[in-house]
Amino acid sequence: MILKANISEAFTSLANARQRTILAIIGIVIGIGSVIGMVSIGSIAENEALKQFKDMGVDVVMVRLTENSPSANVTLRDITALKEKESSILDVAPYLRSSGTFSIGKKSIYLEEMGVTSSFFDMNKIRLAEGRFISDLDENRYFCVIGKETAAFLRGIGLNPLLGSQFPLGNRIFTIVGVLDNVSDGGMRPYGVNSSVIMPITTAGRFFEKSDIDSFLALVGNTVSPAQAKVDIQNYFRMKSRDLKVRVTTAEELIANMKKQMQIFSLLLGAIGSISLIVGGIGVMNVMLISVTERRMEIGLRRALGAQQGDIQSQFIMEALVLCLVGGVIGIVLGVIVSFVFAKVSHWEFLISYGSIILGFGVAAAVGVFFGYYPARSAARLDPIKALRS
User: What are the C-alpha distances in Å from 320 to residues 241, 285, 374?
Assistant: First the structure.
């Protein structure tokens, strides 16, 4: 009954000082909303990044030559022989890449030019919108598969239908044999597939005037761990040349690094939001101090009628708590709305972080108790006689 009475009195007192109450609530709303929104956005970004690995699976490793390696020693034959020499490797997908601006008239697009083998598409879980993929039968031929954005650009300049059409790239004429569906960046996939022109790797070697391979993906067998496959790949290239060093990255390593970065990012965002929350808490304390000053007569009368210091203190703490919880609820709703808008604008999956909502309520309650304690203690320590004379 006492708790119910304190809550009722808290709402009544806050309603009587409506303007100050609203100003104090705004500070808490901004603080809680910032924390919830930023933590939720961090969770959404982490979930989206993890989805890329789930789509491809964790059985793919990325192999790249280190900067000081003699990359000319690594040929297409060396890489394709890997799956024959090492039983832990089921397949390999070497690729060459370059980039440049493709212009026709006043229109231009920045293209990622890639040379791949037929394994590249399956290993990267890439789907076709129309046509076909590059196959091993296309070796040394100027056939290409284009990304979604590249296709939109070519249609925009009047190249339609795309399949079977030809267009100039560099000093060569390429024939389009396929158009890719939308491809999400991330995971082990090379960046920029949507704005790409993908050709046979043998064609790319001549087109780029580059025969050495500096990157490839490897598919690990089900009975072998990616960590063991990593050792096998390193040993294989060490046997080829003592000076040749490769950097092998597993999906588990990328996921662990990404989670660590996201945790740091979330902590940073939470710290930024906490600054707003502290400012809001100070505003609550100021409002409560003003309330104590204005209600000295009421406090003195309550004490004269037998109220103990603890009764006065609990009443004012309850007012601060109610103030912060109301602001916290509004802030949580605002934070969820902000994260929802962010997800929609980014075309990412919206994810409600229930942990952040619980955190929001907990933080709001903690702020109410912490910043309400001093005003409540000040009210409880007022001398009843002096309070009645004020």
Answer: 71, 8, 11
Nearest to 297 by CA among 367, 382, 205: 382
Query: Cα separation of 135 and 149, whole Å?
Result: 22
Nearest of 145, 60, 159 to residue 107 by alpha carbon: 159
> Closest Cα partner for 184 from 135, 127, 240?
127
DSSP conformational letter for 138: G
Integer Cα distance of 135 and 119 in angstroms: 9
The residue behind tokens 């003592």 is: 242
Give me the tens of pLDDT residue by residue for the chain, a chain 390 residues long: 466 665 666 566 666 667 777 877 888 888 888 888 877 887 887 777 777 666 666 678 888 876 555 554 678 888 888 888 888 888 999 999 888 888 887 888 999 999 999 899 988 888 999 999 998 889 889 999 999 999 999 998 888 889 999 999 988 999 999 999 988 776 677 778 999 999 999 999 889 887 778 788 988 887 788 888 888 888 888 887 767 778 888 877 877 787 787 778 777 777 777 787 788 888 888 888 887 777 777 777 777 777 777 777 778 788 888 888 888 889 889 988 988 998 888 778 887 777 778 877 888 888 888 888 888 788 777 766 766 666
